[in-house]
Design goal:
The chain is mostly helical and 225 residues long. The protein is built from seven helices and no strands. One of its GO terms (cellular component) is mitochondrion.
Length: 225
């Protein structure tokens, strides 16, 4: 029996939804959410995030809901971003941004607001952070000192072993030298005793060579008469 199987193809995501601008914009929106002492700064960041990520309806709604918190600098930058990205259906948003710029009373730079927020955070959290850091450093210093001490002890033991082994080797070499010089005569005697002498062989009295006869004629030669 044959079974027909259908496969669902995974189509690639739309590349236009994952541009760097949209990723940065979505991150800024998440960063700008929530309450707290930095609410005003977060609201300005969130508006820029909506514009960068191309969320025109959300940007328009956010602008209408938080007009008092938005600075002129933020509104002007948002206008420039919308015009640069040429977002679809952004005519009403551009108009609302222009009206908000004209009505906004917050002319101080966002940079100043950010610096003031950082300074306030430093004053609030710096003492505790320094105290925690000091405790952590003291604990680390103790552990480090203990580790160094253990290493020195291990090194000392190894050095002692090596020194003792070296001394023993030197003593053994000296002992062998002393033994040789103290027993040199005995060694020579033992060598002499082990030497083997073989008697000379007698091959008889040497014979004098016969003198050659001047008139000797070999038998193979005959005299002519």
């Amino acid at each position: 029996e044959k079974v027909r199987v259908k496969f669902i193809r995974n189509y690639p995501d739309d590349a236009s939804e994952n541009t760097e601008e949209k990723k940065l914009g979505r991150a800024m929106v998440r960063l700008g959410s929530g309450e707290g002492s930095l609410k005003e700064l977060k609201q300005n960041v969130a508006l820029l995030g909506y514009v960068l990520s191309g969320q025109v309806p959300e940007a328009s709604s956010f602008l209408a809901s938080n007009p008092a918190a938005l600075h002129k600098e933020t509104l002007s930058v948002a206008q420039s971003i919308v015009e640069s990205l040429k977002l679809e259906g952004s005519e009403e948003l551009l108009k609302s941004l222009q009206e908000a710029v004209e009505k906004s009373s917050k002319s101080n730079a966002i940079q100043s607001l950010l610096e003031n927020s950082v300074k306030a955070s430093v004053q609030k959290f710096e003492p505790k952070l320094l105290a925690d850091y000091g405790e952590s450093y003291q604990e680390w210093a103790k552990k480090f000192e203990a580790a160094v001490q253990r290493q020195l002890e291990l090194q000392t033991v190894e050095e002692r072993k090596a020194s003792i082994q070296k001394t023993l080797s030197e003593l053994e070499a000296k002992r062998q030298n002393l033994w040789f010089f103290e027993n040199r005569d005995d060694i020579d005697i033992q060598i002499y005793k082990k030497k083997v002498y073989y008697p000379k062989r007698w091959f008889g009295k040497k014979k004098k060579p016969k003198a050659a006869d001047t008139f000797y004629v070999p038998p193979t030669i005959t005299h002519n008469g």
